[in-house]
Design brief:
The protein is built from nine helices and six strands; from the N terminus they run E-H-H-H-H-H-E-H-E-H-E-H-E-E-H. A six-stranded parallel β-sheet has the order 3-2-1-4-5-6. By secondary structure, it is α/β, with parallel strands linked by helices. Helix 1 crosses helix 2, helix 1 packs across helix 4 and helix 4 runs parallel beside helix 6.
Length: 233
C-alpha cells in the first residue's frame, strides 16, 4: 500500500472517494433495480422513496423493505435479484462521470493515495471498479460491509484514515450526498461536495466547497482545502 505524504505538507495525506453519484451516476440505477426487485417480490417501491429514504436520508433499503411487509426470509433473494439487475446495467450502459479518470491519474502522478469509501456493497463496488479499470488507482476499498454503522456515521472515514496511517484533518473526502458530507466532517475530514441531480436539493452544510463536477477538482485545490482546514483547526 502506498504511504501518505510526509507530515508538514499541505498536500492531502489521502483522498477518500465516494462511489455512487461521484464516480458514476448510479443512484438512479440502484433505484430502478430495486423497483423491479421489489415488484418481483410482490411489493411496491417508487424511485422517489429510494431517493428520499436512502440517497438523501441515509436510511437502509432493508428497513424500507421490512416496513412494506417484506419478510426476513425473502430478503436474500430480492437482494440477489437487485444485484444482478444492477450489474447488467453497469456493464451495458453506465459511463464514468466527467473528470473521474483525470483526477485519479493526477493524484497518482503526485503519489497521493486514494481510497474508495462507499456505503455500497462490495459486490457493487467490484463491478464498477472492474468495468472501468479503476481498481489500480485505489490503495484500499472500504464498502458498507466493512463498517458496522453506515454514513452519515463517520466510521468509514475514521477506518480509512487509520488504514493509510493518516490524520483525518490532513485528508480530503469527495462526496455527492449530504449524508456523505456529514460522515466526513464528523470524522474531522474536510469534504468537497459534488451534488448530482438526485442530491442537489439536500443540505450540504459543513462542506468545505461545493462544485458542479470533478472536472473542477485538482490536486492544487485539494491542497488548498487541507491548508485552509488546518488553519481553522
Amino acid at each position: 500500500m502506498r504511504s501518505a505524504p510526509l507530515p508538514g505538507s499541505s498536500l492531502p495525506h489521502a483522498v477518500f472517494f465516494d462511489m455512487d453519484g461521484l464516480l458514476v451516476d448510479s443512484e438512479p440505477v440502484h433505484a430502478a433495480a430495486y423497483v423491479v426487485a421489489f415488484e418481483r417480490a410482490g411489493l411496491a417501491l417508487h424511485p422517489d422513496e429510494y431517493r428520499t429514504h436512502v440517497t438523501l436520508g441515509g436510511g437502509s433499503i432493508r428497513d424500507l423493505y421490512a416496513a412494506k411487509g417484506g419478510s426476513a426470509a425473502g430478503w436474500p433473494e430480492l437482494f440477489e435479484c437487485k444485484c444482478e439487475l444492477f450489474a447488467k446495467q453497469v456493464r451495458e450502459e453506465m459511463e464514468l462521470l466527467p473528470g473521474v479518470s483525470e483526477l485519479l491519474q493526477a493524484l497518482a502522478d503526485r503519489g497521493i493515495p486514494c481510497l474508495l469509501a462507499t456505503g455500497s456493497g462490495r459486490a457493487n463496488a467490484t463491478v464498477i471498479l472492474e468495468r472501468f479499470g479503476l481498481r489500480p488507482y485505489f490503495a484500499a476499498v472500504l464498502s458498507g460491509e466493512d463498517v458496522s454503522r453506515a454514513k452519515p456515521d463517520p466510521e468509514i472515514f475514521l477506518k480509512a484514515a487509520a488504514l493509510i496511517g493518516a490524520s483525518p484533518a490532513h485528508c480530503v473526502s469527495l462526496e455527492d450526498s449530504p449524508k456523505g458530507v456529514r460522515a466526513a466532517t464528523g470524522a474531522g475530514v474536510p469534504c468537497i461536495a459534488v451534488p448530482t441531480s438526485w442530491t442537489r436539493t439536500g443540505d450540504f452544510t459543513g462542506a468545505a466547497l461545493i462544485v458542479h463536477s470533478l472536472q473542477q477538482v485538482t490536486p492544487l485545490l485539494l491542497e488548498e482545502i487541507v491548508h485552509n482546514h488546518l488553519a481553522r483547526s
